[in-house]
Amino acid sequence: MCGNNYDATRQIVGGEFRYRRTGVLGIEKNTQGAVPVALLLQQLGINLRGYHKVALAPSYDLEPLAGVNLPVCETDFVAIENLTYPDKAAFIIGECKDEGDRIDENDINNLKQIADAIPRQRFSPYVLLARLSPFSAEEIALARTLNTKYEKRAILLSQRELEPYYIYERVNKERGTRYYGGTAKEMARTTAAIYFAESAEVTDQGPSK
């Protein structure tokens, strides 16, 4: 897939073996969309697992039950963070974009409706938007609409947060802050502070080394 030639004929012995592309980069030739998903799942796995158990899975088609007025759409990933009582489990869905794609109003509207439909007695819903380049002003404005008066549920992660080992390592160096990404709640508060000019309470102490 990188454009170089590789002679695999010496490994084919008597027709016993069959070879095919597999994994997140092997479904089809268009691999760009898989890269931000892989980076995001790695970051969530590193930073969230420092505290609690977390389930991570890529690419789901979302279809409403019969009679339910919700859009048919997809989410690039699902993450469920199992928190301890009295906190409810965090349910995270969202979009991952490479450098060329943009998050649009349709993406936000679909994700907002799904987040609104998550049962609050069981989960705290979050919508995470990730991309391999900086967010545009339009994308930030759209993302802000995911929050409500009483809920911060928008999480924005650009290449600045996806590349270092700790999510907010570069942000803290640039701003002289002490943000951590140990929980979805903390990431939503930090997103509000960085992108929406709102205050953020630092409650987590960061993942253990």
How would you explain this protein's 3D organization?
By secondary structure, this protein is α/β, with parallel strands linked by helices. It has a single domain, classed as Trna Endonuclease, Chain: A, domain 1. A five-stranded mixed β-sheet has the order 1-2-3-4-5, with helices on both faces. Strand 2 and strand 3 form a beta hairpin. The C terminus is likely disordered. Helix content is 28%, strand content 20%.
What structural keywords apply?
209 residues; alpha/beta; Trna Endonuclease, Chain: A, domain 1; 6 helices; globular
Give a quick summary of the entry.
By secondary structure, this protein is α/β, with parallel strands linked by helices.
The total strand number stands at 5
CATH class term: Alpha Beta
Shape: globular
Radius of gyration, whole Å: 19 Å
> What is the chain-wise order of helices and strands?
HEEEHEHEHHH
With strands numbered from the N-terminus, the spatial order across the biggest sheet is 1-2-3-4-5
As for the CATH topology, it is Trna Endonuclease, Chain: A, domain 1
Helix content: 25-40%
**Architecture (CATH level 2) name:** 3-Layer(aba) Sandwich
Integer average pLDDT: 84
Structural class: alpha/beta
Distance between the termini: 35 Å
Note poorly predicted spans.
202-209
Question: Total domains, how many?
Answer: 1
